[in-house]
Amino acid sequence: MDSAPKLNLQKSMELYTEAQKLSPGGMMGIRRPYNFVPGEYPIFITKGYGGHIVDVDGNDYIDMLCGYGPIILGYNEPEINRAVIEQMESGFCFSLVQPIQNQLEKRLLELIPSAEMAILVKTGSDATGVAVRIARGYTEKDKILRCGYHGWHDWCVEVHGGVPEAVQELTEEFPYGDLDALEQSLERNKGQVAAIIITPVGHPLAQPVMAPPPGYLQGVRNLADTYGAVLIFDEIRTGFRVALGGAQERYGVTPDLSTFGKAMANGYAISACVGKAEIMQVAEKKVFISSTFFPNSLEMAAAMKCIDILERERVLEDIWQRGEIFLNRAEQIFADSGVPATVSGIPPMPFFTFDKVDDLYKERRQCFYTETIRRKLFIQPYHHYYICYRHTDEDLEYALNAIYEALEVTKKKYPVK
Length: 417
What we know:
Elements: H1 10-22, E1 45-49, E2 52-55, E3 60-63, H2 78-90, H3 100-111, E4 117-121, H4 124-139, E5 143-147, H5 165-168, E6 171-173, H6 179-188, E7 193-198, H7 216-227, E8 230-235, H8 247-251, E9 257-260, E10 271-275, H9 277-280, H10 282-285, H11 298-312, H12 315-337, E11 341-346, E12 349-354, H13 361-374, E13 377-378, H14 393-413
Parallel strand pairs: 3-13, 5-6, 5-7, 7-8, 8-9
Antiparallel strand pairs: 1-2, 2-3, 4-10, 9-10, 11-12
């Protein structure tokens, strides 16, 4: 199997050169080229349709990154577009709130096991920030124990530049799946912990994605109760994807507070912090939360319509069923290839990791992702992938074939010695 030809990315590169003069790094964080394979991936996208994206050079890709998770249905969904336009015609940014806020919050309370009250915000970082502030206000404690990625704010950011050391000391990280480690952290910080915040499906950076081990989430729940900490499930990725009510619904463990976003509105910027009324009510007088744009209603209209479609079309059942087939097929392809790598994740959220069996694992990883992007399969080396509703069976079959061919090239270039 020969390497695929390099893509024409001339316009992307020209725009990137311009962007670096206009903004630090050209764009922010995870969208910078060094998070992919520099020189091989597109940098600017012009449009999306179904489960595909098209870059500024006209390259058409099967997109399994799905905007880093918000695209649960597909790009350019007509029903959602119409709902947003209809809301736009009535206005969407006012000094006061609109009735659709109540309608959406009622919907969330019906669907999410932990939801007795809700606060609508914009981004995942907004929602986790709200949850942590509420937990601190409710418990009158300061320490946060965290497991997973929770956004870019000072209390949780993984790159500490610009974050005061005193703030960093208020957050302590613990490993996923290890109840003993969590208990040790709670004991070490006894009487100081406001909240435990955890992504219920583990997704460490560039490491295998883990479904919760049997009894693990209930164990976390029990430890939170024992030590008097608020338990927060960060369901920004898992909400409306693992189940309509999130991982807490699927795995049967109810936290005190939860954060939802991404798939909630199929790409529109909205998220929510929901939870027990007793805890949430500190946001009425004791804890301050406000933003000019939190009440904007276009995103609420998109969320209402997205949830309509998820329920009507039984979308998540379809994604789980086809995702399971995809994961099983991918696992067999990797096993047959002999390339030292691990297929992990759950059906809606697969991931591939290159095993550190020798000094060539990074070269294998880069080769594999170079070959997949050249075959116009858009996945990413450091972030798990997603299956959306509009990925056709043909799309997924094409993706599996691209994976097979990329592994053949990788095996040929970087054999295990």
